[in-house]
Amino acid sequence: MIDLRSDTLTKPTEAMLAAMQEASLGDDSRDGDETVRKLEARAAEMTGKAAGVFVPSGTMSNLVAILAHADRGGEVIGEATSHIFNSELGGVANIAGMFPRMLPGKRGALDLDALSERIRPAITPNNAGTALVSVETTHNAAGGAVLPLAHLAAVAALARENGVPVHIDGARLFNAAVALKVPAADIAQYADSVGFCVSKGLSAPVGSVLCGTAAFIERARGFRRMVGGNLRQAGPLAAAGLLGLETMVTRLADDHRTAQRLAQGLHKLDTQLVNPADVETNLVRVDVAASGRPATEWSAELKKRGVLVNPCAKFALRFVTNRHIGEAEVDQAIAAFAGVLKP
Fold first, then answer.
1. pLDDT tens for each residue of 256-303
2. CB burial class (10 A; 0-12, 13-18, 19+) of residue 161?
3. What are the chain's domains?
C-alpha cells in the first residue's frame, strides 16, 4: 500500500531508534529528564523563544497555549477553517472556557479588516474581550498553505496594539520555514507562543513542543498537568524528537517536491483536480466534484488500487507526502487515480 493519508505515518529513522534505546529515563514530571530538557532547549533556540515544554500532541499544545495565555470567558480569534476550531473537538470552549470567534480568510490567512473590526482588548457591556489570536501555518484545511511573513507581521501589529497575545499553531512549522527559505524563528517572532510537532515530517514517533517566554512556559507546565499531559520516562520520545530537529528539517524540501510532482501529475489528468501553484508544501488537496462521485467513493476505489488517501470534504481528498513517499510511489498513485478517473 502507498499510504498518503498523513505525514504522521512516518516511522522513526534507524538513528532515532538507536538514540531512543540509549536515552535517559528521568521522570520529566517530577525531577526532570536530561533528554527532554535538551529537546525543549533546542526547540526554544530554533524558534527564537526563551523556553519550551514537551507535550504529547499538537492538539494538546494548542489547548495548553490557550489555557496559559488567557482567562476564561474571552474570545479566541482565528481563521474559520483553522484546526483549533474544526479538528480539536471543541477544546477551546469545552475545556478552556473560551468563546471561538471564527473570522473569514483566504488560504488560511485571516481577513485583516475583519480582525481589525473584531479585536478588542477587554470586555465591554455588549462584547467579550479578545483573549487570544491564533494563526496556523502551514494551514491544513488550505492544503498546506504558508502564511506570508508580511501577513503574520500585520496580525501581530494589530494584536499588540490591543494588548492581545498571538499563538501560532505551527504543527508543520518547519515545512513553512523550508518553503519560505527562512529559519523557523523568523516566523515565530510574530507570536508570543508557537507549537510544532516532531511527529509529522520530522519523523519522531510522538510529541510536540510549545515555546514561549519563560514565565509563559512555567504556567503552561501547570496546564499540561491539568489536561493529563505530564510525561514520566519521556527521554526516549524526546531523543527521537531531538534528532528530528537536528537531522530532518532540511529534507522536508523533498516532501514538497514529491507533493508538487503529484499535483502536476493529477493536473495533467484533469485541470479541475488541483492547481499545482496552490501546492506550497507537502499537502495536496484534490477536488473531485466534477466527477460527481463523493470523496469517500474515491478513497475506497483508490484503496482497491493500492493507494490510501483521506477524504477531507464531501468532494475533496487530501494527499500528504512524507519521507517514505518517493517519485515511484507518486507515479503509482497518479496511475491509480487515472484508473479511477477513467475506468
1. 999 999 999 999 999 999 999 999 999 999 999 999 999 999 999 999
2. exposed
3. 7-247 (3.40.640.10), 251-341 (3.90.1150.10)
